[in-house]
Amino acid sequence: QVQLVESGGGLVQPGGSLRLSCATSGFTLDHYAIGWFRQAPGKEREFVAYIIWRAGSPYVADSMKGRFTISRDFAKNTVVLQMNSLKPEDTAIYYCAAAITGAGSARVRDYDYWGQGTQVTVSS
Asked: Which of 34, 38, 82, 119 is most buried when burial is the number of CB atoms within 10 A of its CB?
């Protein structure tokens, strides 16, 4: 039973930080990349970051480099997205997903499993 469960979303003021977690179970992470995507109202789903589980190789979208960091916790089979210096335009539902790919991908269509999402709202 494959499961991806996001947590850590909430309401934060501009300039604040949030730490999102993606807890995984039911599959072997060694062969997967874990990605984060977000979707704001009226917009297409947007790539945020991915990490290749086995190698620990991270990649963050250019527009979010320097503010967002992706990492893994081997003991908990969990991927973490640390978000700093948050802006109102970061408001979205954030999803984690798993892709069977050796190189990682920024494309929605390359991901095989998805979580239910967690709401992030950046507002004063």
From this structure: 34
Residue with tokens 């700093």: 84
Q: Is the separation of the CB atoms in 64 and 48 below 8 Å?
A: yes
* pLDDT tens digits, 49-87: 999 999 999 999 999 999 999 999 999 999 999 999 999
Q: Report the run of H or E that residue 73 belongs to, with start and end.
A: strand 68-73
**CA 97 to CA 99: how far, in whole Å?**
7
Task: For the chain, give the percent of residues with pLDDT over 70.
Answer: 99
What b/e sequence results for 35-44 when a residue is b if at least 16 CB atoms lie within 10 Å of its CB, and e otherwise? Answer: bbbbeeeeee
User: Residue 47 — φ and ψ, nearest 5°?
Assistant: -70, 135
